[in-house]
Design brief:
By secondary structure, this protein is α+β, with helices and mostly antiparallel strands. It is about 45% helix and about 15% strand. The longest helix is centred in the N-terminal third of the chain and has 49 residues, at about 185-230. The radius of gyration is 35 Å and the shape is globular. About 35% of the residues are buried. Residues about 40-45, about 90-100, about 230-240, about 405-410, about 500-505, about 590-595 and about 720-735 have low confidence and may be disordered.
């Protein structure tokens, strides 16, 4: 390796260490804020960070060696596009590949964004300022999107960090650019400057917090009171686990944000048939809870439970059923492996008929892994707008009856089931064989006085318990215990705390529930159980969804879920058995034995023997046939997916045609519309099923031409790619005015500070650029003169009442020796005497322009130069001199 190449590599290494690594320290926390706000559950923070930093580093290296952006960036886009297309090849099913593409879409976005960051850092001197402002604004907006309780101290920390980053990168970049031959001392000097800036950050931040802490607390209190008044004016529907969307359908919140009171609804959300009965008594249904979300992490900072995108072994199946074409199945079997429980498992099929529940909210018993939208019988479409089948990987040890001893009554079958379950789980003695990372994550308890008290209470409750199931039962018995006079120690109530509480039981409310009033609703019991069991070394997580009970002897296997059955409970992990439901909420008999009558179960729809979805390419009004281009086909119980479109003619003369749940006619179908066509003709079942590796065209050749269909659904809009934000984010509340004001003030403050600190350098660069771009000698001399006068004034050499020539001869030349006197003579000649510059004059101007900044800068250290340029007084003096 030649010395030139070696020096070039060392310069790149210097840039990567002291420019790219600090940038990573700013970008990664911003990604974490965005992750938490948007709840990306399919890609962890580590993967996102690695992808982004690879892109930043790769782009910086590329443009450090002067590659052309116009060539390299399109190549990057092509590679990203090829990567996204390659995702589809990983699955043979179009809908699996569809969701797989969506799952990794944001990685492609992050890579492209990272590449542009690397390009900006490599090519533009002021890009760190732009990046810092962008990260600050994005971070505050992201945090405000999911956190209404952002404190001023947090905002100040973010502001200080970003300003110091912009400050540091701006000055370190100049230092790095001026290094021609890399020596060991350059690494030492750059490291020392980095350490100084880190120390400066801590000193400034903690000093500010020390003197302003009381003002921060007072302001936070005032903001909290204003927020409380806003919250009290809101519709009560926004204060429970269910939120109504624009279509007046209910969605279950994806992170618990329960208030001091728990609003309920009596509306029928959905009806479900679950094919799950006790093995020894096949006439007795075994109800299962319907799971929506796992809340695996407690956010101490904001005092609530949230979905964690980085949780180990993510076994949550959460598609958007409304995006899956009818009668086509989306399956993700990876959740089965992640459920970590092969023992006593079986597959349970369910049919879910949605009434007031949004079709975007997916719910199913146990660990679901399959979703297939189905038709609703015409007689029930007014009550049930949408339906789908599910398949779930369910533990035979799970049952909604397990904790409800009071509900068991004299039913011996249920009691036997409970006892058998306990005996089986006693086989689990400890967690020594469990993955350490998994175990540590699900037994984590925050630090602090409250949680120390919870640990002490847990030790007292579980004293003498040797196995995990014994500890679970001890905690259950604690909540069902009675005091010295025989009254229940805990009580269920929908109004447990002060109206000002903004979240699921925060630290103070949790303490009040466990150690004082002992009154609360399901979330309080679930949160307390989670911390008590984690403190006892038992892995546990909170789960939200719907409680299920078998309320009558008629319609066995059918369950009717109302709004007041939205629920939170815990799942406990047992090695080999997986996650099992445990509900320690007590005394909620009104919801458990709901007085709402069972509705009439919908009739199961006819078996569809043929279904397809595609775009209409031709219409024949006379015969009422349509030609559509398709890639997918369901025939009998088999699905077939092709890479290329194939046309099929459909006979629609006897079909029921609908759009947006309203009946339509054949004339309403237009070329270009996307339609789903279904046939219930049993004659189609006799057609030979698609064979392995058989083409779609070969299968279509066996069908009648045209193929008669019974139902046609016109899609309201063309199918669009669903972003991870739409698929996995929570229903987030609107940003309050005070948070918007805080963000605006922070951005304005940042811009003002940047303008003050960097005005000197910006003006000097501006004058120099005008001089460099001047075409006429007179214009060039003028801008060199302006740049010189500004630089000397900024560094403390004031001209005051002297003429330019006197100032040059008496001040600048004796002290700096820049040759300014010779240049001023040329400037006077072309400016005032109007004599054109000759060759000698041009040589003087060019030589002076090229040398005077380096001579001035060489008189001062880096820090001294920086402080000189920040001298706002000198900047103002220049314009009024």
């Amino acid at each position: 390796m030649t010395e030139t190449v070696k020096n070039r590599v060392l310069r790149l290494l210097l840039h990567l260490i002291f420019l790219i690594i600090p940038t990573a320290c700013m970008v990664v926390p911003a990604l974490q804020q965005i992750d938490t706000a948007l709840l990306f559950v399919n890609t962890d923070l580590y993967t996102q960070s690695v992808v982004t930093l690879i892109a930043i580093t790769g782009a910086y290296c590329c443009y450090f060696f002067r590659f052309r952006f116009i060539v390299t960036f399109p190549l990057v886009l092509v590679l990203v596009y090829t990567y996204s297309k390659g995702m589809k090849l990983l699955s043979g099913n179009e809908f699996d590949s569809y969701y797989l593409t969506v799952r990794y879409l944001h990685l492609s976005v992050l890579f492209v964004a990272g590449w542009l960051m690397g390009y900006g850092l490599a090519r533009f001197r002021y890009f760190p300022l732009v990046l810092a402002a962008l990260v600050l604004t994005t971070g505050l907006l992201a945090e405000a999107g999911y956190n209404k309780d952002l404190h001023l101290e947090d905002s100040l920390r973010n502001l200080f960090f970003v300003i110091l980053y912009a400050f540091y990168t701006y000055f370190i970049r100049e230092t790095l650019e001026n290094i021609e031959q890399v020596r060991a001392r350059h690494f030492f000097n750059a490291g020392a400057r980095l350490a100084i800036f880190i120390l400066l950050f801590f000193v400034l931040f903690h000093t500010s917090v020390f003197f302003l802490r009381s003002e921060f607390k007072e302001t936070d209190r005032a903001i909290g009171e204003a927020r409380e008044q806003q919250e009290q004016q809101k519709d009560p529907d926004e204060e429970n686990m269910l939120t109504k969307n624009k279509q007046q359908k209910f969605d279950l919140n994806q992170y618990s944000q329960l208030k001091s009171r728990f609003g309920t609804s009596k509306e029928l959300l959905f009806a479900a048939y679950v094919d799950n009965f006790f093995p020894s008594h096949p006439d007795i249904p075994n109800p299962l809870y319907f799971t929506c979300y796992h809340l695996t992490k407690y956010d101490v900072k904001h005092e609530r439970f949230i979905r964690d995108p980085n949780m180990p072994a993510n076994d949550l199946f959460a598609p958007d059923p409304s995006k899956i074409p009818r009668y086509f199945t989306y399956t993700d079997s990876s959740v089965i492996a992640n459920s970590k429980g092969p023992l006593f498992r079986k597959v349970v099929e369910s049919e879910i008929y949605l009434a007031a529940l949004s079709p975007k909210t997916y719910t199913a018993p146990g660990t679901a892994f399959s979703c297939q939208p189905i038709n609703v019988d015409a007689d029930y479409k007014e009550q049930y707008a949408f339906a789908y089948k599910t398949r779930s990987y369910v533990s035979e040890l799970n049952s909604a009856y397990f904790i409800y001893n009071a509900s068991v009554g004299g039913n011996e079958a249920i009691r036997e089931f409970q006892e058998a379950r306990i005996r089986e789980l006693e086989n689990v003695r400890d967690y020594r064989a469990v993955d350490k990372k998994f175990y540590t994550y699900y037994t984590n308890v925050p630090n602090g006085a409250l949680f120390d008290s919870i640990r002490s209470l847990s030790n007292r409750i579980t004293e003498g318990a040797l196995t995990p199931i014994e500890k679970v039962l001890k905690v259950r018995d604690y909540f069902t215990s009675r005091d010295a006079v025989g009254k229940p120690l805990f009580k269920y109530t929908l109004y447990p705390g002060a109206p000002s509480d903004p979240n699921i039981p925060n630290a103070s409310m949790l303490s009040h529930f466990l150690f004082k009033n002992r009154k609360g609703y399901c979330t309080y019991f679930a949160a307390s159980t989670l911390f008590l069991l984690r403190a006892a070394g038992v892995p546990v997580r909170m789960t939200t969804g719907f409680m299920t009970v078998d309320r009558s002897d008629k319609n066995k296997g059918w369950y009717f879920i109302y709004g007041d059955q939205a629920h939170a409970w815990v799942q406990v992990y047992f090695p080999g058995y997986g996650w099992l439901d445990f509900d320690t909420t007590i005394g909620n008999d009104d919801a458990r034995e709901s007085p709402m009558p069972d509705a009439t179960p919908p009739m199961k729809p006819q078996k569809a023997w043929f279904a397809t979805v595609g775009k209409v390419t031709a219409l024949d009004a006379a015969s009422q046939t349509a030609t559509i281009a398709i890639k997918v086909l369901m025939l009998g119980n088999n699905e077939l997916t092709a890479k290329e479109e194939t046309s099929i003619r459909l006979d629609m003369k006897n079909a029921t045609i609908t759009k947006a749940n309203f009946n339509r006619k054949f004339k309403d179908i237009l070329v270009g519309d996307t339609v789903t066509a279904v046939s219930y003709n049993e004659a189609l079942r006799k057609i030979k099923a698609p064979q392995k590796k058989e083409t779609l065209a070969a299968v279509l050749a066996r069908l009648p031409n045209p193929t008669a269909v019974d139902e046609v659904t016109i899609h309201e809009v063309p199918e669009k790619t669903v972003t991870p934000t739409q698929q996995a984010t929570a229903q987030k509340p609107g940003m309050p005015w005070w948070m918007l004001m805080l963000i605006v003030l922070g951005v304005v403050l940042f811009i003002v500070i940047m303008a003050i600190l960097f005005t000197g350098r910006i003006l000097f660069r501006y004058y120099n650029s005008r001089a460099a771009g001047a075409k006429q000698p007179e214009e060039k001399a003028y801008w060199i003169f302006r740049a010189s006068e500004f630089l000397y004034c900024q560094f403390g050499y004031y001209r005051n009442s002297q003429t330019p020539l006197e100032f040059a001869q008496q001040v600048i030349q004796p002290q700096l020796g820049t040759g300014y006197d010779d240049f001023v003579k040329v400037y006077h000649k072309v400016k005032y005497d109007k004599i054109p510059a000759d060759e000698h004059d041009l040589q003087i101007m060019n030589r002076y322009q090229a040398t005077y900044p380096a001579i001035v800068f060489g008189k001062y250290t880096f820090m001294q130069r920086s402080l000189k340029f920040m001298n706002v007084v000198s900047t103002i003096k220049f314009f009024f001199n």
